[in-house]
Every structure is written in structure tokens, then in C-alpha cells.
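Could you please consider the sequence and fold following this short note?
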Amino acid sequence: MTLLYATGNPGKVMELRKIVAVLGLEIVAPHEIGLALDVPENGDSLEANAAAKAAAYVERLGDPDVIVLGDDTGVEIDALGGEPGIHVRRWIGRRMTDQEILDTCLARMAHVPPGERGAQFRTVFAVGQVGRPIALFDGTLRGEILPEADPLRIEGFPFESIFYVPDWGRLLGEVYHLPPAEKMRFVTHRERALRHALPYIRSLI
């Protein structure tokens, strides 16, 4: 049985591999099996986008021995009325680079005082397999937006250099660089969603 992560984002693959390695599972990325699909993220919710990714890969592969994980993540900033939400990558109406996303966020938050900079990450995982309906699982992580970006950068994860988690006393991005065993002490939004999905995934395996 193969567990395929339906993403071309190297940062996501890196994170998920660290998580599932500790749990005794392995992840395959699409490019490793010569597969690349461009699935439009034009749904009106994280659930819709995640399900569309999983369904597209399940249909393309047509293999009951492959379990597909599709996901989508949003950042919801309290002071901005929940923006950018599901539109992180197209916050200003077009596709943005990591740096453009950082610059836009810090500019929009420039006059927001400490104590009012709360935000959350939310991830939805969609689990798909031939002959089964898509199953959805989500996870959230609360934190706050820093007034300046840390020099730390992770490709594909622009907010990780400005999203501080008070309960951890760390930037979210710092956690991604920890050894897998130590990282397990810091449960991210993506990991929370995956943990919710694991019992179902294991039942399929």
C-alpha cells in the first residue's frame, strides 16, 4: 500500500515525512513516481480544495493500492477579519512569491498593536482511495503575527518566519528544523489534522 501526498510543495513533503516517519509510515511525492497534476485551488473552502486534490490524483492513478492525501491550509488573522484565509498564495488577486506574501502581511499589520495580533493556521486533509468517498480531517494552531520577519526562511512556507506560538516560545518555522523525535513535542496544525486522519488511514492500510 502506497501513501501518496498530492502536492508539489517541497516544504510540505519535508514536514509530513518527518511526522509519518516517527509513526512508522512512509510518504511518496508525485514527482517520485513521474506524476504531476495541476489541480486548480478554486474552491470556496479549505475542504473543497483539499478534496479536489485528493480526487484528482485518485482518478488519475486508478489504483486501489494507493491512498492519496490532499490538503489545503489557510492563515486566518484576527485583525484582518480572517484574511487571507484560503487565499494565502493569491492574497492580492494574483499568484504571489513567498516574499510578496510576507511584505503584504507585515504592511497590513504595521499599525496593529501587541495583544491584537492573534492568528491561526488551519489545515484540512482529504483522504482518498479508489472506490471510497473522500474523508476530511482538520487541525488548527493558534499564534500571533510578529511585527518583523525572522531571517529564517522555508521555501513554500512564508508565514513560518512571522508566526510565533506563545505556548511554545518559538517561531513555527523553528520547529520544522528540529530532529523528528524532538519535533513531536510541538504539534503543528498540519500534524493535528494528520493525527485526526491517522486512524482512518490505518484502517485503509
About this structure: The chain has one domain: 2-204. The chain has six helices and seven strands. The domain at 2-204 is CATH 3.90.950.10 (Maf protein). Residues 46-61 form the longest helix (16 residues).
